[in-house]
Each structure stands twice: as C-alpha cells, then as structure tokens.
Amino acid sequence: MARTFLRQVLDKADLLLSGKERFARRKGVTIGRDCRILSNIVTTEPWLITVGDRVTISSEVTFITHDGSGWLVRDDRGRRYRYAPITLGSDVFIGAGVTIMPGVSIGDHVVVGAGSVVTKNVPAGTVVAGVPARAVSTWDDFERKVRAWPSASDMHGTTYRERVDSIVEPPTA
User: Fold this and answer.
1) CA pair distance 47, 28, nearest whole angstrom
2) Could you give the angle at the alpha carbon of 100 between the alpha carbons of 64 and 43, nearest 5°?
3) Is 108 within the bounds of a domain?
4) Domain that holds residue 108
C-alpha cells in the first residue's frame, strides 16, 4: 500500500515536471510528431494506445483499454478479461471530455466533438459527436468552414488579446 502511494506521488511529480506528452511516452503510449496533449493519458495499459501525427487531445479525455464488466461473470475457470488497443490516426482533434472505449480505431482527418463517447471505429474524414458518437459532418465540410476563419498571417503584429477580441463571435441564443 505504501509502495502504491509512493508510486502515485512520484508519477504526479513526473507529470508536473515533464509535461503530459513526455509522461505519456514514458508510461508506454506511442505518440507521433507535433502532438498537443492537454489531458493526462492515464490507463492501466498505456502500451495499448497509439497516437498519430498532429493530434490534439483536449482536457479530461478518457481512454478505456479494458472492459471490467467481465468480472461479473465467474465460474470454475475464474473471471473473464477483455483488453483492446485504441488507435488515433493523424490530423485528429479529440474534444474536451471525450471517452474512447476499448478497441476503437479513429482514422486520419477526424474531429471528435466535446463530451462524446466513442464506442465504434471512426472512418477517416469524419466529424463525430454525441453519446454514442455518430457522424455529423465530413472533414471536407469542416475544413471548408475553418478556412474562412482568420489566419495567423491575418493577425500579424497584434497582441493575443487584440487577436481574440477582433474575431470573437457573439453568444448564440
């Protein structure tokens, strides 16, 4: 028990000192290039998670690599276990509060909306949202909308506050 507590304290210190991406790599998560990880990737099987290139994982994202419900079924052979990998392709955005279930593979050029629960594979070029997550748009439509937003070069020479204030949208009713 003391050893477990000490391991947790050391892990927290490591996370704070090294950052979320480096911490996840050290734990065994495979992470591609140019990723932004804003969530603590905490799972008992980190080696089952693979993240492609140019992926953003927002805050409070949960990766579930095992199905603990199998413990409810017991017989003379004991409890049952199920583990499955999770794979994120490249150019993927995972919104805040998303839960990704065991065995899910998310293709390239995918956006997963905040609060979604991803229970099935997501094909490349799809925008999904909801509980459970389902297709709501295509990558092409998403890209077309985003290209209409101001770019970094449009706002050159301004402060962060000036940039945000110049493009902030009014609240929706």
Assistant:
1) 5
2) 30
3) yes
4) 27-167
